[in-house]
UniProtKB/TrEMBL annotation:
The modification 4-aspartylphosphate is found at D55. It comes from the Bacteria. InterPro entries: CheY-like_superfamily, EvgA-like, Sig_transdc_resp-reg_C-effctor, Sig_transdc_resp-reg_receiver, Tscrpt_reg_LuxR_C, WH-like_DNA-bd_sf. Residues 2-120 form the Response regulatory domain. This is Response regulator containing a CheY-like receiver domain and an HTH DNA-binding domain. PANTHER family: HTH-TYPE TRANSCRIPTIONAL REGULATOR YHJB-RELATED (PTHR45566:SF1). One of its GO terms (biological process) is phosphorelay signal transduction system. Keywords: DNA-binding, Phosphoprotein. Pfam families: GerE, Response_reg. It comes from Prochlorococcus marinus (strain MIT 9211).
Amino acid sequence: MDVLIVEDDLILLDFLTQEVSNQINVPERRVRKASSVERARYLISQKIPDWLLLDLHLPDGSGVELAEEFVQSKQKAKVLILTAQADQYALPASLLKNMHALINKADGLAPLRQAVWEICREFDSTFPNLSSLTPRQLEFLHLIGEGLDTAQISKQLNISFSTAQTHRRQITRKLGIKGSALVTLSRNLPKVS
């Protein structure tokens, strides 16, 4: 899965790169990034990404125009927009079928994580499918992400250590991941409602 992140705030760009690389479980250097429309166009001309995460207001041009160019170059392209001016833009109809989500930066990290998770599932069928987990297993997985070990989780959930071990084994079996990969995944889970 190839993603390009376009954001002019360099601190936020680095944070988004780290966040996305954690979710798609690749090294940060594999997530391409640009802080301008010009750089993004260059990177797209070198290799068209599967999806684009971008801000709408960039110092040298419009994120909307960049998104339109991107979807013209790839029919199944997906665009995820993260912007502080969500209410100030009307997206053109030509972008709507390729729009995955429009997220307001003020809404925080949870909607972004959810959108990235969904787009990853769309492009990669091997991406862990959380729907295979029971509500209790999801709760357990979120607690792993909070840094708790199996013994601490058993106390937190008021279950026996043996039951907690069983939950952990079932989670690793269903998701097909374990160890540090499971911890990384659990730290980047979208919040479930």
